[in-house]
Write a structure and sequence with these properties.
alpha/beta, Rossmann fold, 30% helix, binds hypoxanthine
């Protein structure tokens, strides 16, 4: 049995055969959102091919069950490129999500903002992204499917639905361009000035490889950043991973309301 087939068999034995409608990957400090799922939690360690995520503030379990009556698969943690230098680390997990029947994937992350009107605590829906790392999770993929179009990679209809849910909940959901910077060191102020000049509104160390992989697999994608800090050089506040973990929950409560409203609309 292939690695993905083994992971699928474990999931089906624990969570049943009903198809999953949507996947959700949770970013730093957002892991508790997984507790909202009424279903089972399967440790990544029991799922062949799933990452051995090692970043504090993440919860390495796959939660499968109902959220607002919709069957979802919530990934409590991701493996970042900066952990082992593998941009395709989430490929097996996303292939399994697709095999479970999911049509869409919502990604979340913590990010630094380059826009004074998007301060810490705010949420930013990604209108688009800049793959500043130059890395790509599809390098080595032998088929012509590797030439994935990235126009509207952040699905216009999903984004419209998320905007409508935010508005119905009275939540100010900003929108902007996210730049992927490999990390794990944070950016310098000069790098932030450059990224701003290139058209980025926020910066972070994740999400972009997963957007590329998900589009490769034919999943519709949307992503939301929780802004945890102003990017380097833009405020006097010290930037640190502890600060990211402390600030992410500010956005998490709003994110949960948006997602619940959005899922309600899918029933
Ligand atoms: N830069 C990169 N990644 C981040 C930041 C940042 O300022 N904040 C949270 N994740």
């Amino acid at each position: 049995m292939s690695r993905n087939a083994e992971a699928l068999a474990v999931i089906r034995a624990r969570a049943g055969d009903a198809p999953v409608r949507l996947g959700l990957i949770l970013g730093s400090g957002l892991g508790h959102l997984a507790k909202a799922v009424d279903g089972v939690a399967i440790p990544y360690a029991e799922l062949p091919g799933f990452p051995h995520a090692s970043v504090s503030g993440h919860n390495p379990n796959l939660h499968i069950g109902l959220l607002e009556g919709v069957r979802v698969a919530v990934f409590g943690a991701r493996e970042h490129y900066y952990e082992k230098g593998n941009a395709a680390a989430m490929r097996p997990a996303l292939e399994v999500l697709q095999a479970l029947g999911a049509e869409s994937l919502i990604l979340t992350n913590a990010a630094g903002s380059m826009r004074p009107d998007i301060p810490p605590g705010d949420l930013m829906l990604l209108s688009d992204h800049i793959n500043y790392s130059g890395l790509n999770p599809l390098i080595g993929e032998p088929t012509d499917h590797r030439f994935v179009p990235m126009t509207d990679a952040h699905d216009p209809a999903l984004r419209a639905a998320l905007r409508a849910s935010a508005s119905a909940e009275g939540i100010d959901l900003k929108e902007g361009v996210y730049a992927w910077y490999s990390g794990p060191s944070f950016e310098t102020p000069a790098e932030i000035r450059m990224l701003k000049g290139l058209g980025a509104d926020a910066v972070g160390m994740s999400t972009v490889p997963e957007v590329i992989l998900a589009r490769f697999l034919g999943l519709k994608v949307a992503a939301i950043s929780t802004v945890t800090n102003m990017a380097a050089g833009m405020s006097d506040e010290k930037i640190s991973h502890d600060h990211t973990k402390a600030m992410a929950p500010l956005g998490a409560a709003k994110l949960e309301r948006i997602l619940r409203h959005f899922l309600n609309g899918l029933r």
